[in-house]
Automatic annotation (TrEMBL):
Biased composition (Basic and acidic residues): 24-40
One GO cellular component term noted in the UniProt record for this chain: membrane
Protein name: AMP-dependent synthetase/ligase domain-containing protein
Organism taxonomic ancestry: Eukaryota, Fungi, Dikarya, Basidiomycota, Agaricomycotina
GO MF entries: ATP binding; long-chain fatty acid-CoA ligase activity
UniProt keywords, alphabetically: ATP-binding, Nucleotide-binding
Region spans: Disordered: 23-42
SUPFAM superfamilies recorded: Acetyl-CoA synthetase-like
Amino acid sequence: MFPCIEARLVDAEELGYFVRPRNAKGEHDPNERPCGELHLRGPPGARYPEGSKYTFGPDGWIYTGDIAEMDECGRFKIIDRKKNIVKLSIGESVALEQVESLYAASPIVAQLFVYGDATRDYLVAIVTPVEGFGKELDLDPSASKDGDSSSTQMDLKTATLLALEEQAKFVGLKGYEKIRNIHITNELFTVEGGILTPTLKVRRKDAYKKYKDIIEELYQMPIPSLPSSEPSGRL
């Protein structure tokens, strides 16, 4: 930081970022670095251009909307955005929460977590289908273990991807906003499990931490090819 600029971190509880880091049980975790929304404040009388994208507090702090992590030397590293807007490696920006909400409106989705970052050129997701989805294909998610690589799991994955593709077309998502690969799980996100806030929003940091290895595997796989004849995924 410049000598004339003050900086501070403020809890972004809805995203799971805390200046005094916590574990899934809400207890202080000394092994985690302080994280939170980055606020900046300049010298008295400093002026900023009209139409600035930042929010200004009554005490002179600029609420940047950036989520930063502070290292042991007091340096800040930007790791996320409060509004969960990511710029993919192809240069397109995606509002992850908005994309999630549009996909979540699909009648086959119980829950999902959409992931993307600046090093990737497409989105992936962790998906929990509604109970019984796939029965018309003799596929029942409750009959498969999480992470099962059997042909049943792969068939269910294809059916789910087809339904998500239909939902994407229905709501008018652009190509770069579409989910290209998924992992199916029967495990619901919960407050007790540390993945949901008390208001039932996904804690993105904690969801990524839980599914990090699976997400990396999804990006290592080829993007699945979907059948040209697409059965309806809408109930």
